[in-house]
Design a protein that fits this description.
Layout lengths: L10 H11 L2 H6 L4 E2 L10 E6 L16 H5 L4 H18 L9 E3 L22 H16 L8 E7 L12 E2 L3 H17 L5 E4 L3 E2 L2 E2 L5 H9 L5 E2 L19 H11 L12 H12 L5 H17 L20 H14 L1 E5 L10 E5 L21 H6 L3 E5 L3 E7 L2 E5 L5 E4 L20 E5 L5 E5 L5 E4 L5 E5 L11 E6 L2 E6 L6 E3 L5 E3 L8 E5 L3 H12 L2 E7 L19 H13 L3 E6 L7 H6 L2 E5 L6 H9 L28 H4 L2 H4 L17 E3 L3 E5 L2 E10 L5 E11 L10 E10 L4 E9 L5 E3 L4 E3 L5 E6 L5 E7 L9 E2 L4 E2 L5 E3 L1 E4 L21 E4 L4 E9 L6 E7 L4 E7 L6 E8 L9 E6 L6 E8 L5 E8 L2
Parallel strand pairs: 2-3, 3-4, 4-6, 5-7, 6-9, 11-12, 11-25, 25-26, 26-27, 38-43
Antiparallel strand pairs: 1-2, 7-8, 10-27, 13-14, 13-16, 13-24, 14-15, 16-17, 18-19, 20-21, 21-24, 22-23, 28-30, 29-30, 30-33, 31-32, 31-36, 34-35, 36-37, 39-49, 40-43, 41-42, 42-49, 43-48, 44-47, 44-49, 45-46, 45-48
Helix pairs in contact: 1-10, 4-5, 4-11, 5-6, 8-9, 11-16, 13-14
Protein name: Beta-glucosidase
Enzyme class: hydrolase
Family: Belongs to the glycosyl hydrolase 3 family.
Length: about 950
């Protein structure tokens, strides 16, 4: 048949040929992650979902590049593209021997990094949506390639409003129209609109009260943004949440039918067992909840990607990739380059670069290890900080962890010959004294503090971590914290009775059984109290090593599998307490101390910023991390990284983790009015540069900014010239500054280069909630040129054509969610499922949401409402579980004159909206109106005023 051979047919023609050749049951079978082969047509088995976030993952050894947030710190789209190309090449090599290596790759992550406490912060690129979109599109293009056929089919994830792991399947992210249009969508759309990504994955959470997997934006925005068909795949096990945890629908067939109509093409459910999913879809067909055409349309989207990948053609040349490319010298070199360019110098009082030859004390839990994260490949090798520096200097390494003993009144905890923990003999009575040098290793444990109260215990005898063994026993069998369910971390709770150990994963306390074995006690059991000896020994050993050295390098940070990872958000921004104690002790012993932070997220290192002369940050940097770090610390490479998110001083600077309205909450560098520890875009260099006079030109609907930059130092400079704009007057709240572009310059000593940044005038548009469109507002503006969002060296007026935003017509109905400000409300759907999309409907024709009061006295405001000569009545669509009242006030939500009082009858359900009318009095002309929801749980879907 024609689809099995190259022809002049279009992709659509070939897809239609396949659809006609497949039976209805075979088409249905295409809608699961694991698609069975159709041997009579020559269709092979197909699987979606190969992880490729920063290198090929979960398929054995592969080149491991820095984490995504680290790659982003390079501010270098071309570098991310090259990393994507290398990752795709290794995938094509591995898939020749491993059928699990499918060419639908689940990367990049396009969620803007709104809150640094998000457990998956390491997976994203930036808190700025434009920068996120730019870097994600570059990485996706690298994965897909430039040829007539994509090498892989990248998937942008996770759509939409997803930055919390806490209760992620049941929480709803409120995205008012401006936040949706100005902040969220610009991060997700570029990779799709440029044709670099061919697929999308919705997120686990709800958005405005509707599961993201059922979002009308999938069909109404995402599909229209892409130049061709896209494949929409669910996140793992998310479909069952629609009628399970989320309870949005009563059963599987109803939920899956809605998902199919909403645009979901591939159900990632029950791993490689599609039977239950297909059964739900068959029943949905039988009950008339979906049509065969709905199934066929999803199958077309699936087949379109498979056709474009060349699955039905003779194997293209680019698939003839030998396995030797995996971790080849070129990719190792690229890993080193990426790690080097991601390193970011946060502070430097002249200590760096270190001058060799030196005797360096390398200290810290991360000083001699390179850690994998959940989405890493298996490291083929790893160069640690100690190893990298040891290639150039004399190095002494001290981990700085406390080596402790655990005792009860009945004996000391020891490692048995079988690897299990038990009490052995009488207690040694060491109390808080450190164990001696000649202590029996079987009773000694290294205590590692990974923050958030989570500690790991590692046996000094066999080097393995305490883990949960069969029968609730504790044994030293794990190489470290890891796996999906991390069972190797414990809380240490101190009291007058001693220290109690509690497994973080289950909350169960460690007990000593009658036979002396250490076990996890039953849920609710008290647990055993232990005396701990050796606390503080790590800091003391670290200080001694630092005192012997010319300089000390303390490598601190997080474990990617603990306290900040998928399924777990952070609760604070603190450096782990034990790691900070080591840092302070080292600095006291040797003032020439550099702090290296290795983490997937920012820390509030306020003490370090005030006392430590040099601070460097990197994400977990992959296999070449140590060499890259040594190159930067020793001045063999210029620090090139720049922060892509704000580093705050305290959690008090952040709104609630679930507050997604960045505009109303004053979040991210765009709206944060405080003083950050390190601002967005921050990063220092060793060379000194000076900026000249900035010039701004507006021509052909483009703004071009040029500024000369002179290297006044004696070494080559790496400078990232950042261009922001600020609108100084508006009818709505505007960002303090917005990144519009940047230029990365490499400037030789004594030379001057011209940084040129250009962007379209349309980038200056704001979302007009009155007209439901983007508008370049008629307003004064400035261009800000600088080294970061806070370090501005030049400000130049910017004059571009704009238009005034017209007042809201009070006599044309508007959706309640199109407000200008709000207090105490949440957004919710008016109906479970919006109506079908009209083919000629504008892209902006997205159904509005209702506003529902969280508390009594909640309100929303609508500025510049034109009442003309006055209004006769107010009509609102309202819903409440019990009789309630809605007020329309003039000018102020508390003291403003009451124009109307609307009685709302009790409804039968959350979607039972009733039109209620009431007279209006006492206002005319253009004014600001406040809709006050007097009673909690009251909702309003739309409102309109009637003319007299």
């Amino acid at each position: 048949m024609s689809t099995t051979n190259p022809t002049r047919q279009t992709t659509e023609d070939r897809v239609e040929d396949l659809i006609r050749s497949l039976t209805p049951e075979e088409r249905l079978g295409l809608l699961h992650q694991y698609q069975a082969p159709v041997e009579r047509l020559g269709l092979a088995a197909f699987r979606t979902g190969t992880e490729a976030l920063h290198g090929l993952a979960w398929l054995g050894e592969a080149t491991v590049f820095p984490q995504a947030v680290g790659l982003a710190a390079s501010w270098d789209p071309a570098l991310l593209r090259r990393v994507g190309e290398a990752t795709a090449t290794e995938l094509l090599a591995v898939r020749r021997r491993d059928p699990r290596a499918g060419r639908n790759v689940w990367a990049p992550v396009t969620n803007p990094l709104r809150d640094p406490r998000w457990g998956r912060n390491e997976e994203g690129y930036s808190e700025d949506p434009w920068l996120t979109g730019l870097l994600a599109a570059a990485y996706a293009r690298g994965l897909a390639g430039d040829g007539p056929r994509p090498r892989t089919a990248p998937t942008v994830k996770h759509f939409l409003g997803y930055n919390n792991e806490t209760d992620r399947c049941t929480t709803s992210s409120d995205l008012p129209p401006r936040v949706l249009r100005e902040y969220e969508l610009p991060a997700h759309l570029p990779a799709l609109s440029q044709g670099a990504a061919l697929a999308v994955m919705p997120s686990y959470n709800l958005v405005n009260g509707r599961p993201a997997h059922l979002s009308p934006l999938i069909n109404r925005v995402l599909r229209r943004a892409a130049p061709g068909r896209i494949l929409v795949v669910s996140d793992a096990h998310a479909p069952a949440n629609l009628f399970g945890l989320q309870g949005f629908h009563p059963d599987g067939p109803t939920a899956y039918a809605h998902a199919l109509r909403a645009g979901l093409d591939s159900f990632t459910q029950d791993d490689d067992r599609p039977e239950a999913t297909l059964a739900h879809l068959r029943e949905a067909l039988d009950r008339g909840l979906v049509s065969q055409e709905d199934v066929d349309e999803a199958a077309r989207n699936v087949l379109s990607v498979r056709v474009r990948l060349g699955e039905f053609d003779p194997e293209p040349h680019h698939e003839q990739v030998p396995e030797e490319v995996v971790n080849c010298p070129g990719h190792r070199s690229l890993a080193r380059e990426a790690a080097t360019r991601s390193l970011t110098l946060l502070r430097n009082d002249g200590l760096l670069p270190l001058r060799a030859p030196l005797r360096i004390a390398v200290i810290g839990q991360l000083g001699d290890t390179v850690l994998e994260d959940w989405y890493s490949g298996t490291l083929p090798y790893a160069v640690t900080a100690r190893q990298g520096l040891a290639e150039h200097c004399e190095v002494e390494f001290v981990e700085g962890t406390d080596r402790i003993t655990l005792e009860t009144g009945q004996g000391r905890v020891v490692l048995g010959a079988d690897g299990r923990l038990r009490l052995d003999g009488a207690p040694h009575g060491q109390g808080e004294a450190p164990p001696g040098e000649d202590a029996d290793l079987s009773g000694l444990f290294d205590l590692l503090d990974w923050g958030g109260g989570a500690h790991a215990l590692r046996s000094a005898a066999n080097g393995l971590h305490v883990d949960e063994a069969p029968g609730d026993a504790l044994a030293c069998t794990a190489p470290g914290p890891g796996t999906w369910e991390v069972r190797q971390t414990f809380l240490l709770t101190r009291s007058a009775d001693g220290v109690r150990l509690t497994q973080v994963h289950t909350g169960r306390h460690v007990t000593v059984a009658e036979d002396g074995a250490l076990r996890l006690g039953p849920e609710g059991a008290e647990g055993t109290f232990f005396r701990v000896g050796g606390l503080g020994s790590g800091a003391r050993a670290a200080a001694k090593a630092a005192a012997r050295a010319d300089a000390a390098v303390v490598v601190a940070g997080d474990h990617p599998m603990v306290n900040g990872r998928e399924t777990q958000d952070r609760t604070d921004l603190d450096l782990p307490a034990a790691q900070e104690r080591v840092l302070r002790a080292v600095h006291e012993a040797n003032p020439d101390t550099a702090l290296v932070l290795c983490s997937g997220y920012p820390y509030a290192v306020n003490w370090a910023d005030a006392h430590i002369p040099a601070i460097v940050w990197s994400a977990h940097g992959g296999q070449e991390y140590g060499r890259a770090l040594a190159d930067v610390l020793l001045g063999r490479a210029e620090p090139a990284g720049r922060l892509t998110q704000t580093w705050y001083r305290d959690t008090a600077d952040l709104p609630d983790l679930l507050e997604y309205d960045v505009i109303g909450a004053g979040a991210t560098y765009l709206y944060f009015g405080g003083t950050p520890l390190y601002p967005f875009g921050h990063g220092l260099g060793y060379a000194t540069v000076e900026y000249g006079r900035a010039r701004v030109r507006v021509r052909d609907d483009r703004v071009t900014v040029e500024v000369p930059v002179t290297n006044t130092g004696d070494r080559t400079a790496e400078e990232v010239v950042q261009v922001y704009t600020r609108q100084t007057d508006s009818r709505v709240r505007q960002p303090f500054r917005t990144l519009r572009g940047f230029a990365r310059l490499r400037i030789g000593a004594g030379r001057t280069e011209i940084a040129s940044v250009s962007f379209e005038v349309d980038r200056l548009a704001v979302w007009d909630t009155i007209g439901d469109r983007f508008v370049v507002e008629e307003a004064p503006r400035e261009v800000l040129v600088g080294r970061s969002a806070s370090d501005v060296v030049a400000t130049v007026p910017l004059d571009v054509p704009g238009e005034p935003i017209q007042p809201r017509d009070a006599f044309t109905a508007w959706s309640a969610d199109r407000y200008d400000e709000a207090h105490g409300v949440r957004l919710c759907p008016v109906t479970p499922e919006p109506g079908p999309v009209e083919p000629d409907a504008p892209e902006t024709a997205v159904p509005g949401d209702a506003v529902r009061a969280r508390t009594d006295g909640a309100w929303v405001s609508y500025r510049d409402v034109d009442l003309g000569d006055g209004a006769a009545e107010l009509r609102v669509g309202a819903n409440a579980p019990r009789a309630a009242t809605v007020l329309l006030r003039l000018g102020d939500p508390v003291t403003g004159a009451v124009l109307a009082q609307v009685p709302v009858p009790a409804g039968d359900g959350v979607h039972d909206f009733t039109e209620v009318r009431t007279p209006v009095r006492g206002a005319s002309g253009v004014c600001d109106l406040y809709l006050v929801l007097e009673d909690a749980d009251t909702a309003v879907s739309e409102l309109v005023l009637g003319a007299p």
